[in-house]
Amino acid sequence: MEIHLAGRARKLGDDINTDYIIASTRKRDTLDEQVLKRYLLETVDPNFAASVQPGDLIVAGRNFGCGSAMEVAATVILAAGIRAVLAETFNRTFYRNAVNNGLIPIECDTSAIDESDRLSIEVANGKIGVRNLTSSQSLVAHRIPPLMTEILDSGGLVPFVREHGLPR
C-alpha cells in the first residue's frame, strides 16, 4: 500500500469523543454521512464543517474517538473529504472503525503541529512518514499492523472481504 497525502492541519485537543465528531441529536434524523458531514465537529467549533477544504487532515491529542462505538463518526469524517486523522492516541474501537471504513488513523506526537500547518504523509508497507512542511519537522508515527494495512489498501473492510473473501 502506498498513499501520499498533503493537506492543512485542523488542530483539536484531547478526548474528542464520537458525540463531538457528530452529535447524537443529528443522528436522530438520518445516518446519511453526506447529510451529517455538514455538522462535523459542530460541538467543538460550529464553523468547522463549513471551513473544511479538500485534503484537510484532523490533528488531535490523546484519546481521539472515545465515547460510544458508532461507526458513523468515522464515515462522517471521510464524507467531509478528510482521509486521515493524526492523534497521539486513539480509542481502540474508533481506530478499528476508521480502518474498516478506509479512514487512516495515524498515531504520533502531534504537539508540534499547529492549526493550518501544511503536512505531508507517506504510507508504504505499514510505515508512515509524517512531515510538517511548515516547520520542516519530521514526526515519528506508529506502524499500522499488516492486516489493517491490507484493509486500508482495499479501501475498507467491505472491499477487502469482496476482494479476498472471509478469513478462514
Molecular structure report:
There is one protein chain. The chain is of the alpha/beta class and 168 residues long. It has a single domain (2-164), classed as Aconitase, domain 4, CATH 3.20.19.10. It is 30% helix and 23% strand. The chain has helices at residues 18-21, 24-27, 33-36, 48-51, 72-79, 92-101, 146-154, 157-164, and strands spanning 2-11, 57-59, 84-87, 104-107, 118-124, 127-132, 137-140. Strands 4-3-2-1-5-6-7 form a seven-stranded mixed sheet. Helix 5 links the parallel strand 2 (57-59) and strand 3 (84-87). The radius of gyration is 15 Å and the shape is globular. The two termini are 23 Å apart. The model has no long low-confidence stretch (mean pLDDT 93).
Features:
alpha/beta; single chain; Aconitase, domain 4
Quick take:
The chain is α/β, with parallel strands linked by helices and 168 residues long.
Describe the protein's topology.
Blueprint: E1 2-11, H1 18-21, H2 24-27, H3 33-36, H4 48-51, E2 57-59, H5 72-79, E3 84-87, H6 92-101, E4 104-107, E5 118-124, E6 127-132, E7 137-140, H7 146-154, H8 157-164
Parallel strand pairs: 1-2, 2-3, 3-4
Antiparallel strand pairs: 1-5, 5-6, 6-7
- CATH homologous superfamily annotation: Aconitase, domain 4
Strand percentage, roughly? 15-25%
> Could you say which structural class the secondary elements and strand pairing correspond to?
alpha/beta
Radius of gyration: 15 Å
At the third CATH level, what is the topology name? Aconitase, domain 4
Strand order, sheet with most strands: 4-3-2-1-5-6-7
Number of strands: 7
